[in-house]
Write a structure and sequence with these properties.
Blueprint lengths: L7 H14 L4 H8 L3 H14 L15 H17 L5 H11 L7 H10 L30 E6 L3 E2 L5 E2 L1 E6 L5 E6 L5 H15 L4 E4 L15 H8 L3 E4 L8 H13 L6 H17 L35 E4 L5 E4 L2 E4 L8 E6 L4 E6 L2 E7 L6 E2 L5
Length: 383
């Protein structure tokens, strides 16, 4: 400021008073005191906020400390070494959990990671949009509304043993219920796992799976033995269908698993690695969809014993038959196949007309049979 004579603070006071009186143009006042309009506005603002103390010379020390910024940068890079697949947002959340003080912004952390060569640039892929006429996917609003289940793609341990983990996850909370290797696509083992989880955590309302074995079969409605058992327990079964129901969240979790779980030497060591990762995924890893909360803070179990499954009973006048071991069934004038899912179970033909029957298993309509027409079991047309 080009004031040479008298007290600098005194001249600033005179400047502010002249501005506050308002009997002169601001440009004339600035010309008389040899200051810019920005300087005059600065001192007027300080006077209104702080009074005479605002006209004192302010410290020129930067608001942020370079030493403090370097400390946060070192903390960030240490965490990045421990969690090499976490991005700036999750690492900022972890910094808040472990350290006190004002954290740098997410963009600052991203810039530090990029400068350290810790950011891998990915090519943008064109997004394919599929429109579906009938979307029937159930939305998961609360824990145990929808569980997703799948077999992750197989790989081999360092010792050459094949591993194909079964993964089960609660969709609403992202909580991983199971990530272990089983015998390849063994329905009995998967049923035993589901029994254990249903009793410990409660049964979901919906079980979502893909169109492959052991979840999907060739019988009516695509039921296999496993998925028919789910249905009998009162669980709605949703099969992934292009353009209608997807399992993208579960597939994305599989990508994270592949990136973060190291390949171990033996099956036993691989099982321990998968279980450690599951615990970290549930209790330590924040999720954007949960407001950067770990799944364990959201998921709530609802333990309950499994109900008994008595064989269904049918009204008088219906023709009841038991499905044979290989899934075939025979009545006078027709022999067909329902699939192994119904083997050993009683089904019933409900007469609709003289030669038309509706085939049921319990309350599940399996199809319509016309003994004088195509003589094939087809789903009846909607009225």
């Amino acid at each position: 400021m080009p004031w040479k004579n008298g007290s600098v603070k005194g001249q600033r006071i005179e400047l502010v008073r002249a501005l506050l009186r308002g009997d002169e143009r601001v440009a004339a006042i600035c010309e008389r005191f040899k200051v810019s309009r920005q300087t005059a506005s600065k001192y007027r603002r300080r006077w209104l906020q702080l009074g005479p103390a605002g006209l004192e010379d302010q410290s020129r020390r930067p608001h942020g400390s370079m030493a403090l910024a370097e400390q946060w940068r070192r903390r960030l890079l240490r965490l990045r070494r421990d969690y090499p697949h976490w991005g700036a947002r999750k690492l900022r959340w972890l910094l808040r959990q472990r350290f006190t003080g004002r954290r740098p912004a997410e963009r600052t952390l991203q810039r530090w990671l990029a400068a350290a060569g810790q950011v891998q640039q990915r090519r943008a892929r064109p997004r394919r949009v599929v429109f579906a006429k009938n979307v029937t996917a159930t939305s998961a609003r609360r824990p145990n509304d929808v569980w997703t289940i799948d077999l992750k793609g197989w790989f081999r341990t360092k010792g050459g043993q094949r591993v194909e983990p079964l993964t089960i996850r609660d969709l609403a909370s992202r909580y991983l219920l199971w990530t272990r290797h089983l015998a390849p696509r063994d329905e009995r083992q998967i049923k035993a796992v589901c029994t254990r989880l249903f009793e410990r955590h409660g049964r979901p309302k919906v079980m979502r799976c893909d169109l492959g074995p052991p979840f999907f079969g060739r019988g009516p409605h695509g039921f296999s033995r496993l998925s028919l058992w789910w249905w009998r327990l009162g669980i709605q079964v949703e099969f992934v269908r292009r353009g209608a129901i997807h399992n993208n969240e579960h597939e994305q979790m599989h990508q994270v698993l592949s990136a973060e779980v190291p390949v171990a030497a033996t099956l036993r060591a691989q099982a321990r690695a998968l279980e450690r990762w599951r615990h970290e995924y549930n209790h330590d890893r924040p999720h954007d969809a949960l407001g950067l909360r770990p799944p364990a803070t959201v998921y709530r179990s609802q333990p309950a014993p499994l109900p008994r499954l008595p064989l269904p009973k049918y009204p008088a006048g219906w023709m009841v038959r038991r499905v044979r071991r290989h899934g075939s069934i025979t009545i006078p004038g027709w022999t067909g196949t329902l699939g192994r899912a119904f083997a050993g179970l009683p089904v019933a033909f409900k007469p609709v007309s003289a030669h038309v029957y509706h085939l049921y298993f319990d309350s599940l309509l399996l199809g319509e049979l016309d003994l004088k027409g195509a003589r094939k079991l087809v789903l009846p047309r909607a009225p």
